[in-house]
Design brief:
Blueprint (H helix, E strand, L loop, with lengths): L34 H17 L23 H17 L8 E3 L1 E2 L2 E2 L1 E2 L3 E2 L1 E3 L5 H20 L8 E6 H5 L6 H6 L2 H7 L8 H19 L4 H4 L4 E5 L2 H8 L2 E7 L1 H4 L2 E4 L20 E5 L11 E5 H6 L5 H4 L5 E7 L2 E9 L7 E7 L7 H8 L14 E8 L6 E3 L5 H17 L31
Antiparallel strand pairs: 1-6, 2-3, 4-5, 7-9, 8-11, 9-12, 10-11, 13-14, 13-16, 14-15, 16-17
Helix pairs in contact: 1-3, 7-14
Length: 452
Amino acid sequence: MTKIPTRSDALIFDEHWKRPPSGWPAAPLQTGFSPKVSDRIIKESLREWVVSPSRSLFRALKNTPSPGAPIFDNLLDQTRFLVSLNSVLSKCKLEKLRGMKPVTRNGRPVMVAGSSPGMTISDVCDPKVNDVMRCLTTYAARQNVAVPNHERRRLYRGIRTHDVWGNIGIRATNILTSDIELLSHFSSASRTDSVYENMALSIIQREGAFLLLTSRPLGRLSENTVLSFTAQKKMAEYFTNNIGFVVSVDPAAHGFSIVASPAAEPFLEEKDPVSLKNEAMTILKLPGEFVAPESNVYDCDFDYLAATNDSRAINLLSSSYRGITYNIAGKEVTKIMSLSNQGRGKLQALYSADGNYPMGSREFSGKFGFSPAPTAKTIQDTSIVSIFKRQPHSTKREHCERIPEDLIDRLKTLTKKVLIERGVIPECALSEHVPTMNIQGPVNEELSVEPS
């Protein structure tokens, strides 16, 4: 992320941040706006967050106000703030900022986000910028006070693996190639199918992302400490796109500050205009050094769970080009995904057993007397038989080779070793015994269904 080149380009907290007024936040910080205008600025900023959090003014609450200190850590956040602020001011029928200009170095504009120049303003202590910041800060402080600890319920955030992996700076293929023996096994010329190697890479990617997620502050990985969470775990899973993790937090226990919640802003529970889902969104500000505990991080990654023979992969199958066969309730059931008649491009899960035609979950339950989708009660007794590739509208199947347990452990150990050597994660105790590779050994059929 582009750092602000010189202090003269950075927006600064002005001298009026020295101390809050008596009775704050009930008594607001003084601004040049009327209460009605202040409320409009807040509402527009919240609606902007629903559409695109990265462009909402509320991201500016990351840093604690201090007279003379920069408002932002980097030029990209500052530029987004200035562009969004002008948009909000326009919607509130207020005069836009004066003196906006690109940040330059040696006479050339400093670029952020590809081909866009970083922006600043002539007066980096601009009263209007600081007045808007005072509006946001007062609102967030009031929201945090308004919700007592005993009413703060557990919340969830979906995180995609590649968003975390971007902080690593190492390709999964580079980690695999650092062990010649493993590489030669997974990329053997005798294998005509690349799925086996891809399964190994999915284990490396997940393991690396998990190690980073549980060793670095979440705010640093997310590039901001002001983040969205949802009250619904299913919604958090949706945001992972089945390639990531769900992080569970207890705002009261972890000392998070509530910035905005559906309790005060009911529209945060309305359907999102893009996902068309009720996200039940709460905006939290995290302590800067908060690291997600391992017990609060849940896998939501089909490729990884399938590669490690984990029964949780069954409910995450979402591709019409894959299928999965598993044992449940004493029967061998096969699940595939097929296009539904109830909407363009929508997939539905179909299940079959005992040579019957594929059918929906409700019809299957009526015919066989149990749900084909594993639940918290039945997943312990559910085991994967095989995973296969398929073509929609075809009965032809190509079964994927399964990775033995000792190789799964070897891939995880290798990933941790490389990340420690590269300084990506802190030094920690590695197992004294690195398992030897047993390519011809039997596959352990036991499945782990507990969250990592």
